[in-house]
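User: Show me an example of a complex going from sequences to structure tokens.

Assistant: Sure. Here are the input components:
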Amino acid sequence: MTVLLAAAWSEVAQQVVSGLATGSIYASLALGIVIIYRSTGVINFAQGEMATFSTFIAWWLIEDPNGPDWPYWAAFVVVLVISFAGGVLLERVLIRPVEQAPVLTIVMVTLGLAIALNGLIGWIWGAETRSFPGAFSTRPIHVGSVTFSIQDAGFIAVMLAAVLCLYLFFRFTKAGLGLRAAAAGGEASRLLGVRVGWMLALGWGIATMLGALSGMMTAPTAFLDPNMMQGVLLYAFAAAVLGGLDSPIGAVVGGLALGVLLNLLGTYVDFFGGQMRLVGGLLVILGVLLIRPQGLFGRVAVRRV
Amino acid sequence: MRMRLSIVLALLATGAGAALAGPTDTPGVSSTQILIGGTAPLTGEAASAGAVSKGAQGYFDYVNARGGVFGRKISYKVEDDAYDPPRTVLAARKLVEQDGVFAIFNTLGTNNNLAIRDYLNQRKVPQLFVASGANTWGADSKKFPWTIGYIPSYVVEGQVYARYVLKTRPKAKIGVLFQDDDYGHDMIKGLRRGLGKRTSLIKAQVGYDPKGADVSSQVAQIKSSGADVFMVFAFGKFSVQALIQANKLGWRPKLVVVNAVSSSANLMTLADLTGAKAITKGAVSIAFFKDPTDPKWKKDAGLALERKILKQYVPGSNVKDGYYVAGMASAYTLVDALKKAGKNLTREGMMKAARTLNEAKNPFVIPGILVKTTAKDAFPMQQVVLERWTKGHWSIFTGVLTARS
Amino acid sequence: MRLLTVRGEVLGKAAAAGAFVLAVALVPLALADYQAYEFALVGAYFVAVCGLNILTGYTGQISLGHGAFMALGGYTTAILATDHGIDPVWTIPIGGLVAGLAGFAFGIPALRLSGLYLALVTFGIAVAAPALARKLEGLTGGSTGKNVPLPKAHWGLRLSSNDWLYYQNWTVALVLLLAAWLLLRGRTGRAFRAVRDSEVAAVSFGVHLPTYKTLAFGVSAFYAGVAGSLFAITVAYVNPDSYPIKLSVYLVVGAVAAGLGSLWGLVFGAALIEYLPTKAADISSTAPDVIFGAVLIAVMLLLPSGAAGLLRRLWAFAARLYTRPRVQ
């Protein structure tokens, strides 16, 4: 009897651990979504494609036989910088014209960006699946009957480090303060000398950088192809909503929790196996928005009339 | 002036494609050309399979350069459907009604072909050598006489694996990871059918979402069922992920089976490169087309031809990609059937030829495997061989196995 | 300055509408048979875009999930026609009703969601709906889908199947356009517009928000359901992959390109949905999505009020050009 229980528990524990690993993918994409929402009030439907695009640039630098063949860490840093610049450019060119426009317009612009980027990736690099090197080794670690890899643990560590950096940035730097001010009240902060336009661009730059980070951490396990992040986007939204759309730590906690939840649901509730996990993700979004719209750590309240 | 104008208008009105001037009344056939149409996912999530139609095109170019079939050049028009069935319907109708093609050939995708089958059969347009292994192309041939499949069906594939397990590991505990769609379901159907009374050997049968991110949870679930035979019925990167996950979990199944669709050398090599050699070593799969990366075929005349055609007619192609071979194989069979159908080419004649195939020398198919159809047997290919992954490439280790579904 | 008197404008609009109906009736005579098929699809999209316009253009609620409502209508038609032998034509209103009820039901929790959040949830619905269709295999045929009986002319009319489809779809489209017009010009329409412009003000004018917001969802879902039925009959096949998230995005693009808050540009929006993907593929066989995304962004940046807005501006321009202030 105890053997059976032990077996069952170790199975659950393994699913939890795998859930944390999958959840870090959701969390990493959610982080960028949260930053854009927090600094510009926009939900970026193109976050996944932007992350994939950045990762392809990294692939070209590191792995492409016709490319410059750079070492991993050099390319890593350069891609983060390029992504930051790209994000700033995107905001100034595409989002700035529609800053004051109704919600639908902005949503459609980010959707258009997502579609165009996806096509662009396929056009430049083609559709085959490729491998991407990881920052950490994939050697498995066994703790009792549960296995995970250093890569999985490293991913989570990187996420938490990113959240810490963001916290320090928002709290203690002038730019961070400016970002918060710009997000909170455009006009008033303008009067106080905050260059609101550039703050919004900064927010996009940071989020795009986070997207690149997300892509480069996800690609080693998920393999790189133009549609790598398409299956993740809905879960990333769910993670962001669960954690609180304006809370970076919420994005990470939400992502990890969602990964575990969906794994357990998928494994133990027959109805939610296979493709039905998507429905699980949808129910999380719907449930959180209806019951506790600010999520676990957020501060935004949905206005009700 | 007006007379001439009305003649021009009359000619235009008879439709550009529908009435190519020629000795026959068959749509798409003239004294100089045979117009064939098809759809393929040139963009979108299944774009990697677009190489099948490119391979076929290359073979047609080669045949055309040598005079074509009875002096007619084969013109192969491929429309992109992005793997989206409603677009396949639109494209097929356009090809038939506006371009006036003789036949539809090599359309890729089970659902895509299901969407156009009724229409093509109603219009009596041949739906030839469908690029999908669904069982229904052969099984329902009486209901849909204008449709014919090509590759061994997924059900047959599942059966072959079942029989292999029963023969070599009768006490196996099978764990199956399958893609949660038509493809995966057909494979499972075949597996169960092949196991017959011993379906209890299947200890875990877990599906995954083809649009999801990874399969770690599913593989973990299968491992914890105590399975010692791991069957992967997946597509593309998910197969590699499954193998890697199994490796990561420290699982060492005694036998790993990888389905044909994802057993391409690139994917297996990817798995090896990411450290999953322990899992991929000895993995078993089926084959029916010659694998361009198998050293056995290094001096093979058929693949030498394939390489020559790719070099000359398909710029930018990856010689190692087996999809091109698949396309050329079915193009070869089409040309074979066209020749059989004779100089006086009609659609009925075409179907008759397609139903009386007897090809033993298709240069792209593994020798011994016949491409054959008869009045009672509407499945062109029902034989496979088994191959094993060793030292970074596939090696065939059995003779030709026959499995009827 | 007005170009026409008020009466003149009313008559003018009626004449334009009449001309439109006449054009719809006569166009197949000028078209090749295959083109009638394409136009039949435009008719189906027309209905969907009309419905979405009622929701987003008139009450300001965003839906990125109308493809799912189309799926409901399409599957209803497929199940009734294929499994139960009902003539597909009669399944059209039923498909609409099923979707309409679902839309109404969804409208209730949707009351608590606004703008971005509603967009998120409806996006989720569109992404998850195919999964549900796949799961309920017994009902929907799972991944294999269902073939709908091929269309043919009814009631002794001697029409090719493509022409029949064209007239079937466009008759439904015109009837529903009329219904939408009647609905929107009355009290309901005014209430809808009040909701869109300012919920707070609407409440203070006595508009009961929940009723009108859910009504809008229900009605627009009904339209999407009808469109889905027409789509299923025209394509003659349904499966989970026939209603992907892309379809929902296309519908919104079509509605915006048509011009939200007006019924004048609907044909343009519907035509865009039908022809843009194939035209984009013609322009660039390797990167059609780039063209599509670029067009989408261009429409949002340059022409956010769509074709209807453009028409309005042209009309105003003409008015300025041709009227002169009377100087006494």
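The lines above are the inputs; the final block is the predicted structure for all three components together. The domain at 2-151+301-373 of chain B is CATH 3.40.50.2300 (Rossmann fold).
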